[in-house]
Design goal:
- The complex is a heterodimer of chains A (181) and B (130).
- Chain A is α/β, with parallel strands linked by helices and 181 residues long.
- Helices cover 33% and strands 14% of the residues of chain A.
- Chain A has 8 helices and 6 strands.
- In chain A, the strands form 2 sheets. A 4-stranded parallel sheet of chain A has the order 5-2-1-6, covered by helices on one side. In chain A, strands 3-4 form a two-stranded antiparallel sheet.
- Chain A is flat.
- In chain A, 18% of the residues are buried.
- Chain B is mainly α and 130 residues long.
- Chain B has 2 domains: 42 residues, no CATH class; 67 residues, c-terminal domain of poly(a) binding protein (Orthogonal Bundle).
- Helix content of chain B is 68%, strand content 0%.
- Chain B contains 5 helices and no strands.
- Classes of the chains: A alpha/beta (181), B mainly alpha (130).
- At the A-B interface, loops of A face helix 2 and helix 4 of B.
- Chain B: Belongs to the bacterial ribosomal protein bL20 family.
């Protein structure tokens, strides 16, 4: 094996580091994209017994968005193993206790039930905000595209941009806008 | 009294017992524990193993097809095209390469695979609004 081929081999099987911004993303849909990179399904050398998965850093898991009424209706089950040890935690409760857990469970579930799952999870790094340790963030070479466009909030737009925005009419002075409930 | 009919042959099975069992023990040579050396256990495991072997001969074909599909999907995604678009584009351009060789090209001949992906992408672009 020439030195060039040897380096090519290293480069092929080297672990890459990806970053994924969870802000305003559905965790259950994002898990599909993240699991693809964790398992190495995006590489043409993939094989179930080939250890070619990559590392993924998920940031801003505190700002995930659940669809519909799932914050109040989705329950996470846990059992301590003792009689009467079952407990159901609602999604909003779990998220307030640990802002990383919903994303983690979504990915863990999507990985499927096999012996490799816990080792694959070790390559996943979750952070509630964008404070990632320097020794992790300096490895990152690629970004996983977000599945949904993050909308811009009107209270984050600067005031002079809103004031100078073209409009077709002014509200009458005695008009009371309907308040949001 | 001597019976000369086939009734006598009912209990005498096949060749010598030692050779008959030896055939089974050779198939059971790689089993674990007593299943390797006790005939009554070995014969059960050998029968089960042969059933598995027969089934797997069919399953191997579909398993490999699934793996090739996964690898082609990965290769096509690197060039921004989906699996079905890629395969459809090749088919419509009369490029008849099977999945096994496409998967090999994706891993070992990335430049050739890129050219194939380009053909499919051009085909998709051309037929976008038809």
């Amino acid at each position: 094996m020439s030195s060039r081929q040897r380096v090519q081999q290293w480069a092929t099987f080297a672990r890459q580091w990806h970053i994924f911004d969870c802000k305003w993303q559905n965790p259950y849909e994002s898990a599909i994209a993240i699991v693809k990179h964790l398992k190495g399904l995006h590489k043409p050398i993939y094989h179930p017994m080939n250890d070619c998965g990559d590392h993924v850093i998920c940031i801003n898991t505190k700002e995930i968005a659940l669809p519909g009424n799932e914050w109040t209706k989705r329950a996470y089950f846990h059992h301590t193993g003792y009689p009467g040890g079952a407990s159901w935690t609602l999604a909003w409760e779990l998220h307030s206790k640990d802002p990383v857990m919903i994303m983690k469970k979504a990915i863990y579930r999507r990985l499927g039930n096999n012996l490799q799952r816990r080792y694959t999870m070790q390559r996943l790094h979750l952070f509630p905000d964008d404070n990632v340790p320097k020794e992790l963030i300096e490895n990152v070479t690629s970004q996983i595209r977000q599945l949904r466009v993050v909308p811009q909030r009107i209270d984050h737009i600067e005031k002079d941009v809103i004031d100078n925005y073209p409009k077709i009419m002014d509200y009458p002075t005695d008009y009371l806008p309907k308040t949001l409930k | 009294m001597v019976f000369l009919t086939a009734v006598n042959l009912i209990r005498s099975r096949g060749p010598d017992e030692w050779w008959r069992k030896r055939k089974i023990f050779k198939l059971a040579a790689y089993f674990y524990g007593r299943r390797r050396n006790c005939y009554s256990l070995a014969i059960r495991s050998v029968h089960r193993a042969l059933v598995y072997a027969t089934k797997s001969r069919q399953e191997r074909k579909s398993d490999l097809a699934e793996l090739w599909k996964q690898r082609i999907t990965a290769g096509a995604a690197q060039h921004g095209i989906e699996y079905w678009q890629f395969m459809d584009g090749l088919h419509k351009n009369n490029i008849e390469i099977n999945k096994k060789n496409l998967a090999d090209l994706a891993a070992w001949e990335p430049a050739s695979f890129e050219s194939l992906a380009k053909i499919s992408k051009d085909f998709v672009e051309k037929n976008r609004n038809k």
